[in-house]
Amino acid sequence: MADRDNIPEDEEMNMDEDEMDFDGGEDALISLLTTDEGETITSVLDKLAGSTEAIAKHLEKQNVILVKILSALSAKPPPPTA
Q1: Contact at 8 Å (CB) between 33 and 40?
Q2: Rounded to whole angstroms, how far apart are CA atoms 82 and 76?
Q3: Helix/strand/coil (H, E, C) string of 29-74?
Q4: How far apart are CA 36 and CA 41, in angstroms?
Q5: Within 13 Å, how many C-alpha atoms sit on residue 43's CB side?
Q6: What is the average pLDDT across 14-20?
Q7: 3-class DSSP state for residue 18?
Q8: CB 26 within 8 A of CB 33
Q9: 0.70 cut: is pTM over it?
């Protein structure tokens, strides 16, 4: 029963946000998550998504061209006629 004396009260366990002091931690986090131009991670990821879609379309076109070239190279020439 001596352990009951060491259990902190609910009020001691719950700290209000007002009691927490970040010492500029929020500003440091914002500066880490933005570029010098003011872009955030979400805007950079959005641009990246658009770029990857364009790259995917170009790769699809390239694959179609490569399949046509491979088909033309692997096609057997007609037998010579005498």
Answers
A1: yes
A2: 18
A3: HHHHCECCCCCEHHHHHHHHHHHHHHHHHHHHHHHHHHHHHHHHHH
A4: 12
A5: 7
A6: 55
A7: coil
A8: no
A9: no
